[in-house]
Design a protein that fits this description.
The chain is built from no helices and seven strands. The chain is mainly β.
Length: about 70
């Protein structure tokens, strides 16, 4: 798939949640990031969505999204 996003935490405890593909959407992975930590995520045949809880900046090939906005 080669679709990546980069998530940079702006506070401690930012949650990054991977959601599955298919008829039943389920959580398949959970990570907690502390302020300043960066996570690189890839969309795969199993992961169709990524949910971010907390204050972070999400960088994609389409631009950056700040969760504070």
């Amino acid at each position: 798939m080669d679709e990546y996003v980069v998530i940079k935490a702006k506070e401690n405890g930012v949650q990054v949640i991977g959601l599955t593909r298919g008829q039943d959407t389920k959580f398949n992975h959970l990570e907690k990031l502390d302020k300043g930590e960066v996570m690189v995520c890839e969309f795969t045949e199993y992961t169709s969505a990524i949910k971010v809880r907390g204050h972070a900046v999400v960088y994609t090939k389409h631009g950056a999204v700040d969760t504070d906005d």
